[in-house]
Amino acid sequence: MIPFLNLQALNQRFEGEFQAAIGHVLSRGWYIHGEECQAFEYEFAAYCGVKHAVGVGNGLDALVLILRALLETGRLQPGDEVLVPGNTFIASALAVSACGLRIRLVEPELSRFNLDPQAVEAAIDERTRAILAVHLYGRLADMPALADIARRHDLLLLEDAAQAHGARLDARRAGAWGVAAGFSLFPGKPLGALGDGGVVTTNDAELAEAICSLRNYGSTVKYQHDRKGGNSRLDELQAAFLRIKLRHLDADNQARHDIAMRYSHGLDRRMLDLPELSAEGEVHAWHLYVARSEHRDALQQHLLKAGVQTLIHYPTPIHRQAAYSELGGLSLPITERLSEQVLSLPIYPGLSAQQVDHVIDACNDFAAIESNFSAQEH
Ligand SMILES: *Cc1c(COP(=O)(O)O)cnc(C)c1O
User: Fold this and answer.
1) What does each C-alpha distance from 347 to 33, 107, 244, 281 come to in angstroms?
2) With contact defined as beta carbons under 8 Å apart, do 287 and 174 qualify?
3) Across the strands, what pairs with 130?
4) Does the CA dihedral 244-250-251-252 come out positive or negative?
5) What is the CATH number of domain 249-377?
6) DSSP readout, 214-237?
7) What is the C-alpha to C-alpha distance for residues 138 and 118, in angstroms, rounded to an integer?
């Protein structure tokens, strides 16, 4: 069986370094907001090419804290509208809802999975104050176009970079395009801890200061509370593990890129629409390799029988979730079509060329059987 993701093997590569890191943290006896967190923040900010990084408890909190800080500093008002892609993971929307802001779901481009700039422009009304661009599956959204729209309409451009650590266009990485960006450090993400974690990046000193305070009871000086903050912190052990893995992030992204290339050259396109490869000067983080098929469910069953585990990101769009019944009347045909057609194939460092070829063969067998079948029908 080829598992969709093998986190055990992925992390086992660093066992020696992880053990040494545990030793350092144990010997210091300091577990929250110490040297490791500070060093991780410094190193991650430098990696992304921004001035500030703030470690937090998870990716959802990273987004919530950005929005809360924008509310605290008066740059957003309760009830302001935020544009969010319809086909993202629900956390992007939940962050907006949690802060008392309005969500406006916007269609993606079918071939790129990311926000369609034309649909964004058409969705802007007098209440719109921000765009939350999601770099879905590891590919940067069309940030030059979205930045231009944000500038012309005086909107805040924010990034949900939870799937795109290390993605870049020319020299500019995910996390360095918007007013602020939220990253998840959940184990399965391109940069993943051995537990929960998240980080915010920004060039804005006022926002960074507000988030540092909000993540820690509204306090930056012990027992002095300037804001009604919460508790969302990145602990020393996770920060230490993340510093080790950050050094291997570019190599891991390259390994996923190589697998994506192998898929894209080997897969039979008769039954599958393959994901667009990155443009000149662009680095895709390939968190997920997502193909589309009109026979998606049959293909998934076929692959399972052939020993290949796949997943669907995501089977039910936000406006079709019970949690968002108030959006149930919306019609988002591209988002809905994607939820019926997308299939994510295994892609991770350590997946061997033979395993990738096995996945390709299993997909191509399906294509051969299906095209034979459709030929007979006519
Ligand atoms: C994973 C993810 C999040 C949330 O991250 P957590 O660490 O699980 O809270 C937010 N947005 C997107 C697009 C994600 O993939």
Assistant:
1) 33, 26, 21, 22
2) no
3) 82, 156
4) positive
5) 3.90.1150.10
6) HTBTT-SBTTB-SS---B---BHH
7) 21
List alpha helices for 103-177, DSSP H: 117-123, 143-153
Q: Is 189 a catalytic residue?
A: yes
Q: What's the predicted TM-score (pTM) here?
A: 0.97
What are the sequence ranges of the domains in the chain? 7-246, 249-377
Fold (topology level) of 7-246: Aspartate Aminotransferase; domain 2 (3.40.640)
With 0-12 CB in 10 A as exposed, 13-18 as middle and 19+ as buried, what is 226?
A: middle
Note the pLDDT tens digit of each residue in 189-240.
999 999 999 999 999 999 999 999 999 999 999 999 999 999 999 999 999 9
pLDDT at 377: 66
Amino acid in the structure at residue 114? N
Q: What is the pLDDT of residues 266-275, one digit of tens each?
A: 999 988 999 9
Which residues make Cβ contacts (< 8 Å) with residue 228, sequence separation at least 6?
218
Would you state the pLDDT for residue 373? 74
Ligand 1 proximity of 57 Cβ (cutoff 6 Å): no
Q: 232 CB less than 6 Å from ligand 1? A: no
Tell me, using a 6 A CB cutoff, whether residue 50 lines ligand 1.
no
Residue-level pLDDT at 378? 59
Sites in the chain below the pLDDT cut of 50 = none
* Contact between 318 and 338 (Cβ < 8 Å): no
List beta partners, residue 345: 289
Pick the residue whose CA is nearest to atom 7 on ligand 1.
Answer: 59
pLDDT of 374 reads 73
How far is Cα 372 from Cα 95, in angstroms, rounded to an integer? 47
For 27, residues 6+ apart whose C-beta sits below 8 A from its C-beta are none
Give bridge partners of residue 221 from the DSSP assignment. 224
| Cβ atoms 173, 179 nearer than 8 A | no
pLDDT tens-digit profile of 158-200? 999 999 999 999 999 999 999 999 999 999 999 999 999 999 9
Cα dist. 331→1, 193, 323 in Å? 39, 37, 17
For residue 184, the CA-to-ligand 1 centroid distance in Å is: 5
